[in-house]
User: Which sequence fits this backbone?
C-alpha cells in the first residue's frame, strides 16, 4: 500500500515536471504565457513522515523546475531584445528599402510577442546635410519604422521615437561605407 | 529712404542715416546699378552694388588717412600697441574705407581724384587710467568735426579700440559697426557640444554652457541679451533660451518630438522654430516669453530652418515638400508661400540679410560639398560666395549686413570664418582643435562699461 502510494506520488511528480518543462519549452517559441503557477498537487497522501518528506522534495523539485523555466523565459526575452536588427536607409531617404523592410519585419514579429515591452525607435542620419534638416530626417526615419510596426500589429502605445539627427554616428568615418552605417533606425527595448 | 536695387525698392530707413555721409561724400553722385566684375562659378551672375545709408555705394570707399596715435610720456606701450593694431584691423575689416596708414606721407595723386579725404588723429595719455582722444578732420589743417575722449583701464585697450572704431564708423558712414559684436557657435567638448562666444575678430573666447549633450542652431536675440538654441539635455531635441550674461538655460519648447532651429523675430518679441508637436516637422511662431504657439505650415513634408525678414513680415524656411529640401518664403502669418531656390537638389539654411534685400543659403553640389549662395528676395539671381573645397555651411549675417559668418571644414576641422557679402576678405575667426559649427552673429553689443566717453565736439 505504502509502496504503491510512493510510486504514484513519484510518477505524478515526474509527470508534472515534464508538463512544466514542456510548457516552458513551448513558451520559448510561442506567445509569452504568464509564469506557470505552482498548484497544490491533487494527491493527498497520508500524513506520515515519509510522505511529508516526499511532499517537500516534490515541491522543491517543482520550484526548481519553475525557476528554471522562468530563467529560460528571461534568457529568451533577453535574446529577443538583442535580436533587434538595425534598419538602414538610403541617402536622403526615409522609405524602407527591401532589406530594411525585412529587418523591420523580423523586429516587429518579435516585438509583437512581448506586449509588455516599451520600444524606442532612434532615427539617425549621416553627416552630409544640415543639422536642422537631418534632425527632422532622422525623425521621419524613426516614424517610418514606427508606422511599419503599428501596421504589423504592435501596440502604438508602447512605441516612442527619438531623432538624434547626425549627432550619433555608428561609424565615425567620412566615406560612403561609414555613411551607409549611419543612416539608420535603431530599436531599443526599455 | 528707399534705394532701387535689382529693380525693386529697398527700404533703408531701418538703417541709421547720417548727414555727414552726404557732407563728406557730397561729390559722389548717386549711382544706379553698378555691377562689379566678380569671378563667378556656375551661373553667370554677379551681385549688384550695395548701397549704404545716404545712397552711398559700398564701392565708394571713404578715403581715410589715419595719421597715427601720438603717445605722451608715461603712456602704456602695450595699450598703445593694442589700440593701434585693433583700430586698424577694425577699420580694415569694415571694408568701408580706403585706408591710408600712419607714417606714410599724404598721397598727392589720391587727393586729386578723391578730394574728400578724412583724417583721423589720435593721442594717448599716461597714467593708471589710459586716456585716448581721437578726432576726425576734413583736411589736415581743418578743425576737427568729431572729437572724442576715451578713458579706460590700460588692460581694456582692446575693448576700447573696438568702441572707438565703432564710433568712428558710425560717425563717418552712419552704419552700425561689427567692431562691437561677438559670434556665438557650438563646439565639441566633453562628448557633447557646448555653446561658445568670441569677439567677431576671434578674441576673448568664452564658454557659455555646460550641458554635456548635443547642442545646435544657436540664435542671438536682437537686443543681444539672450541666445536660443536646440539641446538634447532631456534626451531629445528641445529649444532652450539662456541669458548671454550666463544664467542657466530655461526650457522654451519641449514637445516629445523634435523642437529645433529657433530664430528671433526682428523685434525680439517672438521666436519662429520647427516642431513636430503635431506629428510632423512644421514651422511655429510663439512669444519669446512663452504662451500659445501659432502654427504657420500645414504640409506632410519637413519644414524647418525659419529665418525672419528684417521687417518681420516674412519668413524664409526650408521644406522638402517637392521631394528634396528647398528654400521657400512665406508671409509671417503663413500665407503666400513661394519657392526661392529653383536650382540644385539640396538648398537649406536660409539667412535673411538685416538690410532685407538678400537671403544667404547653402546649396549642396554634386561633387563640391556645401557652398554658400546669396539671392534676392525673388530668387531671380543666385550668386555663389564660397569656393573652398569641403563644406561651407550655416551662414549668419553681421548686424550691418556687410559680412557673413559661416563654418567650413576647408582646413580639415570645422572652424568659423567671416567674409564680406561678395565672398571676399575671408577671415578665420576660430583657431581651435575643437570642431566649431553653427555660428550666430550678435547685434551691436554695448559692452564698454569700463570706458568713460566724453565728446568734445
Assistant:
Amino acid at each position: 500500500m505504502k509502496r504503491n502510494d510512493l510510486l504514484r506520488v513519484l510518477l505524478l511528480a515526474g509527470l508534472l515536471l515534464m508538463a512544466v518543462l514542456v510548457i516552458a519549452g513551448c513558451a520559448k517559441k510561442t506567445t509569452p504565457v504568464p509564469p506557470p503557477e505552482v498548484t497544490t498537487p491533487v494527491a493527498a497522501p497520508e500524513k506520515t513522515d515519509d510522505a511529508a518528506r516526499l511532499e517537500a522534495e516534490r515541491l522543491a523539485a517543482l520550484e526548481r523546475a519553475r525557476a528554471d523555466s522562468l530563467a529560460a523565459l528571461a534568457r529568451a526575452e533577453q535574446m529577443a531584445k538583442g535580436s533587434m536588427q538595425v534598419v538602414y536607409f538610403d541617402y536622403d531617404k526615409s522609405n524602407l528599402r527591401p532589406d530594411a523592410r525585412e529587418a523591420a519585419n523580423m523586429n516587429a514579429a518579435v516585438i509583437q510577442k512581448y506586449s509588455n515591452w516599451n520600444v524606442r525607435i532612434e532615427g539617425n542620419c549621416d553627416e552630409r546635410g544640415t543639422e536642422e534638416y537631418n534632425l527632422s530626417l532622422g525623425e521621419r526615419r524613426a516614424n517610418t519604422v514606427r508606422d511599419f510596426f503599428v501596421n504589423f500589429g504592435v501596440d502604438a502605445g508602447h512605441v516612442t521615437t527619438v531623432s538624434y539627427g547626425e549627432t550619433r554616428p555608428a561609424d565615425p568615418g567620412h566615406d560612403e561605407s561609414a555613411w551607409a552605417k549611419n543612416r539608420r533606425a535603431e530599436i531599443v527595448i526599455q | 529712404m528707399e534705394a532701387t536695387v535689382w529693380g525693386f525698392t529697398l527700404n533703408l530707413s531701418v538703417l541709421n542715416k547720417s548727414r555727414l555721409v552726404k557732407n563728406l561724400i557730397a561729390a559722389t553722385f548717386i549711382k544706379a546699378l553698378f555691377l562689379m566684375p566678380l569671378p563667378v562659378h556656375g551661373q553667370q551672375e554677379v551681385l549688384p552694388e550695395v548701397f549704404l545709408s545716404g545712397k552711398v555705394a559700398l564701392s565708394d570707399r571713404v578715403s581715410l588717412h589715419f595719421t597715427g596715435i601720438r603717445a605722451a610720456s608715461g603712456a602704456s606701450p602695450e595699450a598703445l600697441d593694442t589700440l593701434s593694431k585693433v583700430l586698424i584691423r577694425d577699420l580694415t575689416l569694415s571694408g568701408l574705407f580706403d585706408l591710408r596708414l600712419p607714417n606714410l606721407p599724404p598721397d598727392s595723386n589720391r587727393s586729386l581724384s578723391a578730394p574728400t579725404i578724412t583724417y583721423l588723429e589720435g593721442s594717448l595719455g599716461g597714467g593708471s587710467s589710459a586716456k585716448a582722444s581721437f578726432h576726425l578732420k576734413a583736411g589736415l589743417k581743418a578743425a576737427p568735426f568729431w572729437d572724442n575722449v576715451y578713458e579706460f583701464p590700460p588692460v581694456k585697450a582692446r575693448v576700447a579700440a573696438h568702441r572707438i572704431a565703432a564710433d568712428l564708423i558710425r560717425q563717418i558712414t552712419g552704419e552700425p559697426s561689427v567692431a562691437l559684436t561677438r559670434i556665438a557657435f557650438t563646439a565639441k567638448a566633453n562628448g557633447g557640444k557646448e555653446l561658445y562666444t568670441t569677439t567677431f575678430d576671434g578674441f576673448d573666447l568664452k564658454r557659455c554652457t555646460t550641458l554635456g549633450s548635443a547642442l545646435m542652431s544657436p540664435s542671438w536675440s536682437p537686443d543681444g541679451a539672450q541666445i536660443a538654441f536646440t539641446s538634447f539635455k532631456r534626451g531629445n531635441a528641445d529649444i532652450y533660451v539662456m541669458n548671454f550674461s550666463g544664467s542657466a538655460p530655461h526650457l522654451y519648447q519641449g514637445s516629445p518630438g523634435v523642437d529645433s532651429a529657433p530664430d528671433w523675430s526682428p523685434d525680439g518679441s517672438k521666436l519662429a522654430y520647427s516642431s513636430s508637436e503635431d506629428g510632423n516637422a512644421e514651422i511655429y511662431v510663439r512669444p519669446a516669453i512663452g504662451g500659445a504657439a501659432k502654427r504657420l505650415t500645414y504640409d506632410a513634408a519637413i519644414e524647418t530652418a525659419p529665418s525672419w525678414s528684417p521687417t518681420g513680415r516674412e519668413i524664409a524656411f526650408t521644406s522638402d515638400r517637392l521631394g528634396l529640401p528647398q528654400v521657400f518664403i512665406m508671409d509671417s502669418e503663413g500665407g503666400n508661400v513661394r519657392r526661392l531656390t529653383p536650382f540644385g537638389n539640396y538648398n537649406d539654411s536660409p539667412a535673411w540679410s538685416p538690410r532685407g534685400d538678400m537671403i544667404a543659403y547653402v546649396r549642396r553640389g554634386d561633387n563640391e560639398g556645401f557652398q554658400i549662395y546669396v539671392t534676392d528676395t525673388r530668387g531671380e539671381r543666385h550668386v555663389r560666395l564660397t569656393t573652398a573645397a569641403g563644406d561651407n555651411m550655416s551662414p549668419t549675417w553681421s548686424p550691418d549686413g556687410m559680412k557673413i559668418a559661416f563654418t567650413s571644414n576647408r582646413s580639415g576641422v570645422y572652424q568659423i570664418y567671416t567674409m564680406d557679402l561678395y565672398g571676399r576678405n575671408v577671415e578665420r575667426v576660430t583657431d581651435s582643435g575643437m570642431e566649431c559649427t553653427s555660428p550666430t552673429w550678435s547685434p551691436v553689443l554695448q559692452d564698454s562699461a569700463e570706458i568713460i566717453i566724453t565728446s568734445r565736439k
About this structure: Chain A touches chain B at residues 92, 128-133, 135-140, 160-165, 167 (CB under 8 Å). The first helix of chain A runs from residue 2 to 29. Chain A has two domains: 2-80, 85-189.
